[in-house]
Amino acid sequence: MRVVIELNTLFGEKKEEAKKLVFTSIDQYPEAPVTLGTTLSNFTGDWRTFIPVIDESKCVKCYICWKFCPEPAIYIKEDGYVAIDYDYCKGCGICANECPTNAITMEKEEK
Amino acid sequence: MEYKPIRKVVSGNYAAAYAVKHARVQVVAAYPITPQTSIIEKIAEFIANGETDIQYVPVESEHSAMAATIGASATGARAFTATAAQGLALMHEMLHWASGARLPIVMVDVNRAMAPPWSVWDDQTDSLAQRDTGWMQFYAENNQEVYDGVLMSYKIAETVNVPVMVVESAFILSHTYDVVEMIPQELVDEFLPPRKPLYTLTDFDNPVSVGALATPNDYYEFRYKLAKAHEDAKKVIKDVGKEFGERFGRDYSSMIETGYIDDADFVFMGMGSLMGTVKQAVDLLRDEGYRVGYAKVRWFRPFPKEELEAIAESVKGIAVLDRNFSFGQEGILFNEAKGALYNTGERPLMKDYIVGLGGRDFTVPDVKAIAENMKAIIEKGELDREVEWYHLKR
User: I need a labelling partner for B3 at 20 to 30 A (CA). Which of B85, B166, B268, B385 fits?
Assistant: First the structure.
């Protein structure tokens, strides 16, 4: 069971060790604009305004949101419910739009 | 090895092609356009004769030419292309990619007037319209400077990781034959060692992805890096120009070449082949008692602001000769020079003469007529007008 679930997540166990690469001064940047790592260090979800929030009491585990997420930033947890990986979610709202039971709502993110 | 130049009688375009061969360029991707075509034809001839092992990529447009050159350069290769006018305009988008990705490509642009009306003759507006693409720009006065310019530009570009456009005049240089002193291959190799790239797409132990996205949180810093590279390039240009002079006898240590500045009332300032005419005219005017000098702007980007300020300190007037025009304002070099001096407190009388557009002949008598006009302006202490369409049929 656990193996199947891992395949459905974005990075599986690797994600637990993922650390965002943050440059705080000009000297830390590479001279040329090339990436210094994979998306395990380049988190891409920092430009959104709204974030999807899941109400599990309405979720029927149809996984339509999981299929439609273009990132993909939605994964299936061990209990079968879906969850959002906010490190990569860009707040497009497709999941909320597609959800047949309105279990996903878009809320303004506090930054 | 003692330096003994190899003298060849070649066109400006052939001078460029020889420089590409001597620089041990590895990849050339190009598309033909008058008056550039004989550069890439000559390179193709070198390859056909087995004189070089350059990889030559024939492409379907100038946009593709620059794209392929960028791809080659991103693998760590020394890459070259050449174009003119409409071809350069078609490359515009990719020019930003080359500089933004910090690829030290060298390209020759043969200055040709933009259409319409169609023209194949000399005019600087094509290259100057690419001012803000992040490329450095070197303007050659003669065929020798085309050859020297390409060799120096690779060394400069590969030091600061910024591409360079070496600019020569349509026909006046591109198709006119002159003696060019070329450098024996071994000595070029000593001057220009193999490139050490910042990154390569073929370094599988250190994989990078090029052309990735930067969010508003990071883009700004990369722009600053490119701006600083241009600023740092000023010293590199002077050092490489000095080294070139020490090795081969032709000194390029100043970004603005000057003559008779010390006791001149005013100077002619311009770029490219027209400055050859000006230098000859200034010699003649000096014989006739005119207190006149010249300031040939070799590097337009980065702009030699500090050197211009030093010139402005010592003269009463500057006659800017613009073989180009920015519609709605004035000549482009004039605009840049005025802007560079604004906060320095140096305010010589500056007048813009629009000359030679679309290959209109600009001759020694024209320089003399402008000298008369400038002399009157300086005696009076004020401009008659700021921008003069000098050749206009009235």
Answer: B166
